[in-house]
Design goal:
With 219 residues, the chain is α/β, with parallel strands linked by helices. Helix content is 47%, strand content 16%. It has helices at 3-8, 23-33, 48-59, 74-82, 95-103, 115-123, 134-137, 139-145, 165-171, 191-218; strands spanning 12-16, 38-42, 65-69, 87-89, 107-109, 111-112, 129-131, 154-157, 175-178. Helix 6 (115-123) links the parallel strand 6 and strand 7.
C-alpha cells in the first residue's frame, strides 16, 4: 500500500490546529485509537516545524502519518518536509509547492474549487486535489465534477461533520479532511478529551466505511 492509499484507507485526515509539542502526541494517539492514522498539522501554528518534527519522529513506528497543512509556498513545504512531514496540504493551487513536494517524494494535495483549478493542479502533479471550502459548494459538486474528471481523486475539506460526511463520500469524494468537529482547539489534553477524540474518530471512520461499502454494493 503506497502513502496515498494509506492516507485515504480510512477516508479521514484529521486537521489539527493550535496544538503544541506536548499535546500533539496525545491527540495523535487518540485519533489512532479511533481509527484515524493521518493528521495534518497546520503551519500557522506557533512552532509548527518543531511540532511536526517531534510528532513525525515519535509516531512513525506507531503507523501514524504526519503531514503539514495550510502550506502556501514551496519554501514552507520544504521546511515541513525536512521536519518529517509525509504529505503537504494547501488551501490553494501553487505549482511550485507541488513541485517541491514531489521532489521530496511526499504526497501533494493542493486546494482548488473550480474544474479548471482541479485539472491544473492534477496536471501539475498533485496526487489528490482538496476541494476547499467544500461546504460552500456542497456534495452535489463532487458528483457533477466526477462526470468529466472521474480520474482525479478528490478530498472534501471545510465544514465536514458527522451529519454530512456520508453525503460527500457518496457523491464521489475519496477522502475527507476534518478539523474542529474532530479535534477542537486544545491547549492541554485530558483523559476525557482523548476519549472524546477517539469516539469522534471512530464515528467518522464507521460512516465512511459504511458509505463506501454501500456504494460498492450498488455499483
Amino acid at each position: 500500500m503506497n502513502l496515498l492509499e494509506k492516507l485515504t484507507d480510512c477516508g479521514i485526515v484529521a486537521v489539527v490546529r493550535g496544538s503544541n509539542s506536548e499535546t500533539i502526541i496525545e491527540i495523535a494517539r487518540a485519533l489512532k485509537k479511533g481509527g484515524v492514522s493521518a493528521l495534518e498539522i497546520t503551519v500557522e501554528t506557533p512552532n509548527a516545524m518543531t511540532i511536526i518534527e517531534k510528532a513525525a519522529a515519535a509516531l512513525e513506528e506507531e503507523g501514524i502519518i504526519v503531514g503539514a497543512g495550510t502550506v502556501l509556498d514551496a519554501e514552507t513545504a520544504r521546511a515541513a518536509l525536512l521536519s518529517g512531514a509525509k504529505f503537504i496540504f494547501s488551501p490553494s493551487f501553487n505549482p511550485e509547492t507541488i513541485k517541491m513536494t514531489k521532489r521530496y517524494g511526499a504526497v501533494s494535495i493542493p486546494g482548488a474549487m473550480t474544474p479548471t483549478e482541479i485539472l491544473n493542479a492534477y496536471e501539475h502533479g498533485a496526487d489528490m486535489v482538496k476541494v476547499f471550502p467544500a461546504n460552500v459548494i456542497g456534495p452535489a459538486f463532487f458528483k457533477t465534477i466526477k462526470g468529466p474528471l472521474p480520474h482525479i481523486p478528490l478530498m472534501a475539506t471545510g465544514g465536514i461533520d458527522l451529519d454530512n460526511a456520508a453525503d460527500y463520500i457518496d457523491a464521489g469524494a475519496e477522502g475527507l479532511g476534518v478539523g474542529s468537529t474532530l479535534v477542537p482547539l486544545l491547549h492541554e489534553v485530558t483523559d476525557h478529551d482523548k476519549e472524546k477524540i477517539a469516539a469522534r474518530a471512530g464515528a467518522f471512520v464507521r460512516i465512511v466505511a459504511e458509505t463506501k461499502k454501500m456504494k460498492c454494493a450498488f455499483s
